[in-house]
Specification:
The protein has 469 residues and is of the alpha+beta class. The protein is built from 10 helices and 23 strands. The strands form 5 sheets. Strands 13, 14, 15, 16, 17, 18, 19, 20 and 21 form a 9-stranded mixed sheet that branches. A hairpin with a 2-residue loop joins strand 20 and strand 21. Helix 1 packs antiparallel against helix 2, helix 1 packs parallel to helix 7 and helix 5 runs parallel beside helix 6.
């Protein structure tokens, strides 16, 4: 999902068994549990609150990290804490479970959830690690938590887990119960549970699909609404055929090599609503089904506009084999380019876009036409988006304001000024002053004596300077 989608503030506490038995296996169960917890941290939204309690016997139960926002810094510190969890002791759940419920009770969050993971028999109220404690009524504790808006899911891993008690906790706590007999599935269970418990991705409101330009089917402007669909975002190299609210796709297609895929985010039964009984739906789905079939033998060409160019792609398949080493050319609006082979049976070429050249590209091999393709894809410069609304959203989310030509009145703090002219004027003044001094200074006569040594003994001879006649 895009980050703009509204998500509830989530408070999630993971209560993970760190008893000695969690060190068994290859890789060990504790390492798999760490991997699952790390995936939960990585999936968390920055405003979610996460906490982790590692429990064994009562004395060794501790918070690895208390409830805190999953910011970038918070996630780094959470990951360091998870990696430092070791094993030891028995399996006493009660104190850790109560701490998790107390912590969640004191927080303000739309979703409050506990995930309990254990691989052994719970010694609460008996056994070598819990003999001094009362036997807790986990079912009543989970029911009270659910009444306070806190749900609990449990994960039993390995063949020695306390299956009955963990299932009772999940049932009374309004959550889900998992049996991970194959411990390698543990990380996936952890992340799936976190997403299932905390993320409502279903858009349950009537939504009118909007047709997008495409090469498969020309949807009418007015379509009946669907009652619900799953909120998703489209991949960058996919093409949207039907869109829902805020640009979320209802129907999209994508090509990868010779493979073709389509995604329909609503269904054809309970969620389809009036759209399910639309008369044109069978024809649209039939066309889509034929397109999804394997690439037919021959030369299959597509042309997509990319700014001021057209990208032409040809897949060549004959008798179930890729055709390589072909000399193919693409022609559009009088321009011809040679196509390059970029993969098995795939050729790509780019021709200049000419507005008046029509909507068809011709692909030829040694002068013979082998394929034609209609131009698909809108000009990115004229994409169907509400630019004003997009700018308003950017300003709102970044704490700024929308500035228009009428309201833009900047305050000038001051202007810069060059000072080289002042230095030039000063230099000119000094130069003129020096010329004037040279011209008008009084004439003087000077006499000087010149002393020249004539012998090593230090005797000197003098000469008088005379003015020449």
């Amino acid at each position: 999902l895009r980050t703009e989608v509204t998500l509830p503030l989530v408070a999630l506490v993971m209560v993970v068994d760190r008893s000695q038995s969690m060190a068994t296996g290859s890789p060990s169960k504790i390492e798999l549990a760490k991997e699952g917890a790390i995936q939960v941290v990585e999936l968390a939204y920055q405003e979610d609150l996460l906490g982790l309690i590692a429990f064994s016997d009562e004395a060794s139960t501790r918070w690895v990290f208390e409830l805190r926002p999953a910011t970038e810094r918070g996630k780094r510190e959470m990951l360091q804490g998870i990696l430092g969890v070791g094993t030891g002791g028995g399996t006493v759940l009660g104190p850790a479970y109560r701490q998790a419920i107390e912590a969640l009770t004191s927080t303000q969050a739309a979703v409050k959830h506990v995930i309990v993971l254990s691989d052994g028999r719970l010694y609460d109220g008996g056994g070598p690690f819990g003999a001094q404690q009362e036997v807790p009524d986990f079912e009543a504790l989970a029911s009270e938590a659910q009444a306070a808006g806190i749900t609990t899911s449990t994960i039993a891993i390995g063949s020695e887990a306390d299956f009955e008690r963990l299932e009772e906790i999940a049932s009374a706590g309004g959550g889900r119960y998992y049996e991970a007999l194959d411990v390698s599935t543990l990380p996936r269970i952890f992340s799936n549970e976190a997403l299932t418990a905390t993320r409502a991705l279903l858009v349950e409101e009537p939504t009118v699909p909007r047709g997008r330009p495409n090469q498969l089917y020309d949807f009418p402007a007015a379509l009946p609404p669907v009652d619900a669909y799953v909120a998703t975002s489209i991949k960058s190299d996919a093409q949207e055929l039907l869109s829902g609210r805020e640009g979320e796709p209802l129907l999209a297609v994508r090509r990868a090599g010779l493979g073709r895929t389509a995604a329909l985010t609503t269904d054809l039964n309970g969620w389809a609503g009036s759209f399910g009984s639309w008369q044109g739906l069978p024809g649209a789905l039939g066309t889509l089904g034929r397109w999804l079939q394997a690439v037919p033998p021959g030369y299959d060409a597509t042309a997509n506009r990319d700014g001021n160019e057209l990208e032409v792609v040809v897949d060549a398949v004959l008798a179930g084999e890729y055709v390589n080493g072909e000399r193919l050319s693409a022609r559009f609006g009088g321009a011809t380019v040679q196509m390059d082979q970029v993969g098995p049976g795939r050729y790509v070429g780019r021709v200049p876009w000419i507005e008046s050249a029509g909507q068809e590209v011709v692909v030829a091999r040694d002068g013979d036409v082998v394929a034609r393709a209609s131009v698909t894809g809108p000009d990115p410069e004229f994409a169907d988006i509400d630019g004003a609304r997009l700018l308003e959203a950017v300003a709102q989310r970044t704490g700024g304001a929308v500035v228009t030509g009428e309201t833009y009145e900047p305050e000038l703090a001051g202007g810069g000024r060059s000072i080289w002219q002042w230095f030039l004027a000063a230099a000119v003044a000094v130069f003129i002053a020096e010329l004037a001094w040279r011209r008008f200074a009084p004439a003087t006569t000077t006499a000087a004596r010149s002393a020249t040594p004539v012998s090593p003994r230090g005797r000197w001879s003098t000469a008088r300077l005379r003015r020449p006649s």
